[in-house]
Amino acid sequence: MAPSVTLVDFDTVKSKSHNLSLVDHEDHDLVLRTFRVLIADLVQHFNGGHPGGAMGMAAIGVALWRYTMKYSPDHPEWFNRDRFILSNGHTCLFQYSFLHLLGYKHMTLDQLKTYHSPSPDSFCPGHPEREHTGIEVTTGPLGQGIANAVGMAMATKHLAATYNRPGFDIINNTTWCMTGDACLQEGVGLEAISLAGHWKLNNLVLIFDNNNVTCDGSADVANTEDINAKMAASGWNVIEVLDGSNDVQSITNALAAARDSSEKPTFINCHTVIGIGSAVAGDAKAHGAAFGEEDVKNIHQKFGFDPEERFNVPDKVYDFFRKDLRSRADSVDQWEVLLDSYCKAHSELGDELRQRIKGELPSNWENVIPKSFPTSPTASRKSAGLVCNPLAKTIPNFMVGTADLSPSVHMSWPGKVDFQSPTLKTVCGINGNYSGRYIHYGIREHAMASIANGLAAFNRGTIIPVTSSFFMFYLYAAPGVRMGALQELQVIHIATHDSIGTGEDGPTHQPIELAALYRAMPNLLYIRPCDSEEVAGAMTVALKSKHRSTIISTSRQNLPQHVESNRYSVRYGAYVFREKEDAAVTLIGVGSEMCFAVEAAEDLERNGVKARIISFPCQRLFEEQSREYRRSVLRRVETLVVVVEAYAANGWERYADASISMKSFGKSLPGKDAYKYFGFDGKVISCKILAHLDAIEQQRALKSEFIEL
Amino acid sequence: MAPSVTLVDFDTVKSKSHNLSLVDHEDHDLVLRTFRVLIADLVQHFNGGHPGGAMGMAAIGVALWRYTMKYSPDHPEWFNRDRFILSNGHTCLFQYSFLHLLGYKHMTLDQLKTYHSPSPDSFCPGHPEREHTGIEVTTGPLGQGIANAVGMAMATKHLAATYNRPGFDIINNTTWCMTGDACLQEGVGLEAISLAGHWKLNNLVLIFDNNNVTCDGSADVANTEDINAKMAASGWNVIEVLDGSNDVQSITNALAAARDSSEKPTFINCHTVIGIGSAVAGDAKAHGAAFGEEDVKNIHQKFGFDPEERFNVPDKVYDFFRKDLRSRADSVDQWEVLLDSYCKAHSELGDELRQRIKGELPSNWENVIPKSFPTSPTASRKSAGLVCNPLAKTIPNFMVGTADLSPSVHMSWPGKVDFQSPTLKTVCGINGNYSGRYIHYGIREHAMASIANGLAAFNRGTIIPVTSSFFMFYLYAAPGVRMGALQELQVIHIATHDSIGTGEDGPTHQPIELAALYRAMPNLLYIRPCDSEEVAGAMTVALKSKHRSTIISTSRQNLPQHVESNRYSVRYGAYVFREKEDAAVTLIGVGSEMCFAVEAAEDLERNGVKARIISFPCQRLFEEQSREYRRSVLRRVETLVVVVEAYAANGWERYADASISMKSFGKSLPGKDAYKYFGFDGKVISCKILAHLDAIEQQRALKSEFIEL
């Protein structure tokens, strides 16, 4: 269903379009031809990759980088640069090739040729990766980039509202995000789109490479909605460009209008032809495979290049992109001068901003964490509030949000201001403004995690995003959490209601298997503290982990506060909680089930069996300790090690000989009853261990097998 | 932002509304008052639960069950009943209480009073659960119910197109789905909504309990989009009911119009007041807690009930709902008569339909699986096609779909017909009709899994849904997969590209930690076959597992076909692949990494170390075997057991002493190079094992620790 040409709600936009001369148009023709031939060559080189999208989007790239975006290849880390995000990450050659043409020094033609090569040192992986210069976020899993872009645009809005002062427009960059059909079908993209409209992020532009082709053929096989009307209903400006494959002028005008949009994010629906110039132009076959030698030759001929030559980029094309390299670098210098005068005029703010640009927290942050906690039973979600709220209140880097669980997750603090469009007050009486640091994500866990990645990726350490929801719903958020860990982003997830202690909400809300995912996820710390003291330790670890993401997993229900718990030992992953000479049993207590380990140890003692206890909040941290430390904590050779946790046991076999664990989904019962129902009770546990000790006496082989008791 | 009253695209709907008399209106008043007081009482009884939504939705329930829906409490499993799905599952008391009032025998008043009680035998868990009579699907995780409803409506469309014949409108039920604000914000809901519009499921009605309140307060804090316009843009009819709390007549009219909608699904935007009648009416406080004794008394008084009495349901209210119990049962009898004559008139179809109503496959299904496979190297995704395609082609129960990866997942078969609205042909040239059994889900993995749950839940075994995508993107789908496993639904997920062998697409596409999730997930079989033969075994297991979900996990790359592999042993989870007397080492080969285990065994042999090999496609199936069998396969006491798998090792510690595994995210390299880069190479593995054997000689304690080599 080809939508008609529309310009929806566009009258408020003041166009500052470039007037491109005839020379420009000639240049464009050469540039577009060169670019498309280059893409075809690169994909053919190692006979694999995604050529079609990149070829179709060429004119959009010219409009973006030549005429619109604010950046300097000599200063790729410039704080106030425009951010570009390729949500349709499989078209990465689009970005790599433009980085090369624009003069990013690391991206040589030889580097480009490593795309899909066996070289482990390539800057051109199959999807863009954040660790490489010029790439803002890693993309590939579809829809993520849109949410990341929303986070980036929020970061700008927030920092601008916090630091800009009259005459000092220090932070005013725009976020540009490319998307294909796919990201607009994915739930995470749709969630993020709703939020961007709600927040009126007028510094966000989403450019739709509308080639109407997906892997299965015409996009119409699975999608016939009216995307323009849908975006408008979601609070976006909509601009349509009919010939997005070639019409650099119209695209440039649309981008300029979008950048200057007064009150909404803008969606630019650019109609393009996938694989334009190839024999499979406009077809799904152009999406994800090399064209073949024959067609590559035809493409060369069609675009006026020698069919036998490869990787030919005329100097004129380089000149076209690089002629303003100097002036782009000058803009950065001018911004530095502006920042200097700002810091003089507003010295306190200036110091703070400079610190944040460096990605640092105020030096006193550790002192903000309470030194002690109430000794009465406390739900660890409340403990998380006791630890996080003062940090959030006093440290400007914190932006704390929730997927609509404010009353449950205890993450708001007295005097918090919501991150909202200030215009919302008059529309529907909702308070807040862009300087606010408390984020209502709505019931959108996936977008929450992925937007948080964007907030964190804006500039390392400038913003520490904290998300919060029930632990079970971090399964919805999991692809976002994964992308944060993969990109080494410092994002802190506060997950509450983390076991069957959640109770009446039942098996749909009781995580059984989810910890297994997060304990196996590389570069992610899944920390399950047993009380307030360990929550303080967990937050300290999370804040010192500048290159990884953390989940702090807390209870719904009240937990006893243990005299043996120790915040400073959380960093070791596990530690001796209660030592005992000549112990026969080591009990591993974890999170909210520590209380059962303690009860069981005491009951074993009454039955003449000495039991020691270790607290084990984080497997990954423990793995990083020396073998000597690990052995001294576990004492596996001398004791029967039994872990007590109301999750599936998977993974504990590394540390324990047996488990008190969950073998099924949970059950809707009050928390205490749910625990009892599944055998989480000191006496029951102790009995099982006694029986198992007897069985081992009789049959030594048992200790070489892991047993779920 | 209160939307104005609209009736969008409604002119095609022929209204067959009930004309309710004055008596009815008086009845309604009593019924609504009784219902609301009952809800307040039930939540107060154990001082917990969700009262507000249920109270606000009372009039919708009356309109649905009294005037609109087709069902019989005496025949709760009637095949052609209307399906009702409560996507906002926390309002479960709404459904439980109506089931009671309507005369579902199991749902006594005493049963209702077990809500939030410590009784493990309650039919009233904190969210609706499919195993209880009258509940079609388990809901709670938000957005799932909408996708389930889409699956249910598809099932009807498909079965009707397949079996109905002139004069025999055997299958013509409607699917009614309640949703709150939350499900409409969740990505999975939005994905499913797009698909329902695309497929023109005019037998689907989504009723929006629009109380504009979420946990965080006004829904406006996180959502200000124009939902009516958005739904219309997504291809839905939109009807708005202004007084959804009380106006039974308007709601009934809207439902009737929706049921008779000619070509689109219908969205009914019902404005209601959460917790109506309570002191916190219209406030988030009415959402998830008891009102307190004081307010409960006030509610009683306000609604004309004795403030001290509890659980008072006047006979007149029972009469109101139950007076047509007999005629409802008669309708079922009439349908059975119709089915009998259908079976006479169309005997072949009738036999098939009866078999499917019983949830059975054709008796010859095992013969449809190929007896042998090509011996040349074959990607196991292709093997999955070789096994699944003939089944899908010949067995009508199969409905196979993909999240836009048809060219990659090999799940389509010659002559397959797409499930599509037949009108799409004229709109945009897309072929297909509702009898089609190949489903293009678009790039919507989460909705795919959750819609598949709806297809499976329509009636056990009638439809066997098969989904397909890259394994990595089953992380997007995970909440849906979980809900399938939790509900014991037979859904088969074909996951391809399942390791670092995926190659150039890089770490975003290489699952490292995901198997840990699915191996820990209760009631889910995660099967990783090593070649075509084991794929055949995996599919056989999946088809015999009528009460669980299965993921069959396959490779992108070609795999050698092993003479030792055995389809019949897959059911045991693991089996001896290559036995060796006096072996020092047992190698566990898994899925596409079996080839490295074989190479390593051969290299060990060359170095004088005897190594046996076991194939280990499924941990959960292995756990179900006897201890004797498990010991005989693993031989842990006599041999060093080493698992070879390109995933995080977590969980393998139960079966192995050491692993060749992944300790980080993957890398973008051609598949073979990615394996080499991470040490997956027979020689390298063999060297590591030899070194480890030496270390064990020197230090026995090593065998009591799990080592990542």
TrEMBL record, chains A, B:
EC number, as in UniProt: 2.2.1.1
Site (Important for catalytic activity): 50, 287
A Gene Ontology molecular function term of the record: transketolase activity
Gene3D superfamilies xref list: 3.40.50.920, 3.40.50.970
GO-annotated biological processes: pentose-phosphate shunt
Cofactor(s) needed: thiamine diphosphate; Co(2+); Mg(2+)
Keywords: Magnesium, Metal-binding, Thiamine pyrophosphate, Transferase
Family under the similarity heading: Belongs to the transketolase family.
Protein name: transketolase
Species of origin: Pseudogymnoascus verrucosus
Lineage, broadest ranks: Eukaryota, Fungi, Dikarya, Ascomycota, Pezizomycotina
